[in-house]
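SECTION: protein entry
WANTED: fold as tokens:
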Amino acid sequence: MTTTTRRRRVGIAGALVGAASAGVAAAALAKRYAVGRIRLRPDNEASEPFGELRGRERTHVTSDGMALHVEIDGPEDAPLTIVFCHGYCLNLESWHYQRKDLRENYRLVLWDQRSHGRSQRAAAEESTIDRLGEDLAEVIEKYVPGPCVLVGHSMGGMTIMALADRHPGLFGDKIRAVALIATSAGKLAELTLGLPALLSKAVHKVAPTTISMLGKRGALVDRTRHAGSDIAFLITRYMGFGDSKNISPTVVDFAESMIRATPTEVFADFYPALMNHDKLSALHVLDPVPTAILVGDHDWLTPPDHSKAMAAALPKAQFTEVPDTSHLIQLERPGVVNDVLRDLVKRVEV
């Protein structure tokens, strides 16, 4: 190879690297520009006190030694308690709008599921949906003196199903009604996430290994997650909200901050439990009590077909499919969710 040829190839390689670097820089600049423009839009929720609502804080130590953060809100002498169970990678603050709407008239119990929010981290083998059901049973026993209504979003709905499977006797006298919001009774491993069938199949094939690997490097991944907050903002906005163009940037920031605060190891520990979740056969336990099922029509994570399957198993349930709405429905359409909950509570008030 002549010196001229070698220089030419080196020059071409350098140009390619330079072009690639310029492309990455341009993409980063475009991302920041896009996020900046979104944040500059009029925002009706800019002054909303997210994360500032407080109740009477308690710590419950479970039968297997986990310290769970619990908050009790509303009048202590209210005849009915509403228990809120949050979703995967969220915490009790995700019920902000529902808490704000209901705390004046009802006694509320909100809790951080193990390894989430301010609750203690559990080992991987203790990160199961059945164990969450046992945690909920203990929370009810300790903090709910009378009848109650259970409300679960996503993984929180699965927690309620696990409770029904393991403690069916609670439903009817103690538990008077249930709301299952953006959740599933099973077959999450078959989700397409909006991808073509072959691509979706490939993603599901590699996902468990990839997520397990990320979990083992959780501390390193968490440091990079904080560095990529603009990307996380855009992903949360796109995946979590159906009407992403009009959703408040403050609401997106609030949701993304909860997700980012959940360690990668926790995300990895609970992933197999969610993929293996199958409680369709336990739904009959809910049949005697009023049940509301809500889902957004653009929910990619727990699609409407999953809620429709639950509604088919519970023909007396009230089923609501909310248009232009995705997985974080209680934050995106709080008015709709609050109306459904108030209607459900009125049906069982004592």
